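Dear support,

I submitted the protein below through the web form. The confirmation email said the job was done, but the results page showed an empty box. After a refresh the structure appeared. I'm attaching both so you can tell me whether what I see now is the final result or a partial one.
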Amino acid sequence: MHLDRRVLYFTAFTLTALTFTLTVIMVISTYRNMHLERMQQEELLSREGDVLLHLFDTIVEDCSSNPIKGLPEMQRLITSVPNADIAYIYLLDENGVALAHSNQQSIGQRIDGDLPDLDESLTLSHDDGSERIFEVRRHFQSATSKIASDYFLGIGLRMADMEQVYHEDRRHRIMMAAILVLLGTATVFFILVVQNSYLVQRTLDRMTSYTQYVVESMANGLISLDANGVVTTINPAAAELTGIPKAKARGLSFDSLLSEYADEIRSVLWDDNTILNREIEYERPDGSRIPMSLSATQVKDSSGARLGAVVLLNDLREIRELNERARRVEHLASIGRMAATVAHEIRNPLSAIRGLAQYFATNAQDSDPEERSYAETIVSESDRLNTVVSELLDYARPLELHLEETHIEALFDDTIRAIVLETEEKGIEIEQNIEPDIPAIQLDRDRLLQILLNLTQNSIAAMPDGGKLVLRAEWLTKSQSIQLTIEDTGAGISEQDIPRLFEPFFTTRTHGTGLGLAIVHKIIDAYNGKIEVHSKEGKGTKVILTITPGARMSKVTKL
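What the results page shows now:
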């Protein structure tokens, strides 16, 4: 892969600019830290001087209120105070004239500088010959003093030790900054040296990662074997199909992984044969069998030396399901065509029979009650047979969906309104659970209502002595689908009857036609949806409908 030189130049320029920026940041940060440290030192000296001045104020109070001691005693004390840390101390009157000073030559002279307000401190620093002094002044007031009612105390603290620490720290910081600049420069040089190799390696890594992502993302299962037939690579699809985790599959021999087809794989690995789309039934560790197509070919290097083999597994479950579904649709279509023919042939004479029966029932009102009962029975049975014929025609007729914006909550309300009298009569409790924020969906509202009424009527029939009927709606964000659940606590359905539930004319009810669920399945098929039935005898039944709005539908008309 070609590597543009501009990438190298841009990277070098970027690193140089980054190093310069970091250096500037380091200098500014060092200056700020040193300035902050100086301020903290001065704050510490200010507090220390303030404490000493308050202590000395106590002595001043004692001396100034004692006529025997007075100024001479204070001068003696002030003269004895200076040491390695304190340069001088003085007492000023309200005009700033020195009344007592550790430097006796300054007595009677006005001390330069501003004077603080009452009970306030003032700090300043200055050079005193060969050393730097930090001075603290404070304003005091005394009602008992015989010398002065307002006076100022000042103390000069030597900064030599702190200055030494400050300068040493500054030298250390400058040295560290210089070292960082050198290290940054060396880093830039090193990166420029290795940049070309790095870009090449990164390109190779990307190609390797891309190849790995392709293998991992394949819908088909892929297994690679080394020259000895040991599994070196297995992608997630192959791990799912075989039922063996990837970590466990790596390192297994193909004899263990594909034991039923070991001879065929061996012929590919050592005899350079090829297997192409052979249909197999693979038995997984849990005992289940999955239909797959198996393909395998030998892998060689550029010189033709054998490196191993690649095995491809393709899941045939969905294909077989689609084939079965197509077979079933064709079967049901043929039944529907036959049913439509029979229905048309029945409806005409049936209308005549009902009309004559209605005539005899009307004329027999004043005659024999038994004859009238027979005639009314013929009318009611003719109506029931006409219902069956109508359902047959509805089932045989091509289904067209008329889509409109549908709110599930309103759909559930209409369903419950239609069945509420019957459920109250039988003592059946209705529970409605609708997930909040389900959007309005483009559906055929009448057809979906037909499905719900059909399923809820079946649930009611299964609970003649009362029970509970639950209608639930959920929005599946991942698949952007609506899932509707109808659940009851009725008699349930036997396990052997569940696969036949949606076959035309199959029913477990005494007066059922066996077409209701077949029509439900036909409508769900028109949506390309999914219907699941879970039931246990004596425990109840749960029917789950999954519909994806916007999925490819057959014969759709939008309103």
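Response: this is the final, complete result; the empty box was a page-load delay. The radius of gyration is 50 Å.
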